[in-house]
Amino acid sequence: MPHVSAAKVLQLLTQRHVHPLYLLLGEETYLIHAYTSAFVERILGTAVRDFNCDIFDADSDSLSEALSVARTLPMMASHRVVVVHSLHQLRRADLQQLEAYAEQPSESTALICSSHDSDPKKCLPRSWRKAVVVECHRLAGTPLCDWVVNTVAQYGYTITDEAVQTLLQDQQNDLWTILREIEKLCTYAGEEKDITLTTVQDVCQASRLHSVFALSDAIGTRDILQAITVIDGLLNQGEPPLLIFSMIVRHLRLLWSIQQLGQQRQDMSEMAKALGLPLHVCRRLAPQSRRFSSERLGQLYNIALKADLAFKTTNKPPKTILEGLIFELCSSS
Q1: DSSP state letter for 295
Q2: Three-state SS at 62
Q3: Helical H segments across 45-140, by residue range
Q4: Bridge-partner residues for 84, per DSSP?
Q5: Contacts 24+ apart (CB under 8 A), 210-214
Q6: Distance of CA 34 to CAs 41, 219, 246, Å?
Q7: What single DSSP character describes residue 3?
Q8: Which helix (H) or strand (E) is 48 found in, with range?
Q9: Which of 51, 118, 220, 235 is the Cys-Cys partner for 291 at CB 3.0 to 4.6 Å?
Q10: What residues pair up with 116 in beta bridges, in sequence order?
Q11: Ramachandran category for residue 232: left, alpha or beta (phi over 0 → left; psi -120 to 50 → alpha)
């Protein structure tokens, strides 16, 4: 079962060396989909896709149907491509069908399969040692930094080394997640074609602010599931639990302050000046503050003070304290 780089596979495909069996293994789904698309493009060239390319998912589609299509001759093309994702979801009985096909694969079909399980022996024993295997593991270190730089360049931008390091510090090691952040950075940069450390810091701050507003909305509607989802998202982004807690407390204070200033009939500009906030932030805070009574905000603040005491005086895991805080904020009357 030869392990080959994606670049080598593409080189061989350019030379019209099409193998009947390809297996993409690893947990990085972005690479699985990117490599699959590149292989399909190189194999089919100008051939009609609708007649010669079929994509299945082992989790929801019929493997028998996929293999039947794989045995069908291509139409007005040298090869047909059949893609089957999520082989790790297959039952043992289904593997026998795949084994039978692998014993006598169609030479006019490129069957491209993928599995999130990195060990091919667990899902595809024996016959699949004939397949060309491409590893799709998480990127790290220099390869990950290079991927960021190259992806930013595809959008027509450049990014400094400092900006790359800061971006990666704040993100999960998942290319789909990082790609979404790159798209945000490019949108924020606009006509400024250089993404700098300041750009990353500004966008990360805006992202945190968006999460805090989403958390406040969830608390306001007592949607515990949504509130926990936001908290988990912030923790997965690497935000320290105490920082998240301070963000919640600060937000409650601001809601109360906005409410009090509104009762004094101050307009938005005056509120922004009094609180030292950008005007657009005050405009977002005002509708949220109206969803709470003064009494309710007082209750929420007292609950937060109890959580603060727990952080300082108990050995409970910080995440547990945060989740307990969210449960109380969403369920208190």
Answers
A1: H
A2: coil
A3: 49-52, 63-70, 92-103, 120-123
A4: 56, 113
A5: 212/247, 212/248, 212/251, 213/284, 213/288
A6: 11, 39, 40
A7: B
A8: none
A9: 220
A10: none
A11: alpha
Q: Which domains does the chain have, with CATH numbers?
A: 6-135 (3.40.50.300), 141-195 (1.10.8.60), 205-331 (1.20.272.10)
For residue 137, is it left (φ>0), alpha (ψ between -120 and 50) or beta? Answer: beta
Q: Is the dihedral of CA 245, 246, 251, 257 positive or negative?
A: positive
Cβ count within 10 A of residue 287: 11
How far is it, in rounded angstroms, from Cα 192 to Cα 64? 52
Cβ(15)–Cβ(143) below 8 Å: no
Neighbouring C-beta atoms of residue 60, cutoff 10 Å: 9
Q: How many CB atoms lie within 10 A of CB 200?
A: 25
Query: Per residue in 97-144, pLDDT tens?
Result: 888 898 899 999 999 999 887 665 555 556 567 889 999 998 988 999
pTM metric for this prediction: 0.63
- Band of pLDDT at residue 95, cut at 50, 70 and 90: confident
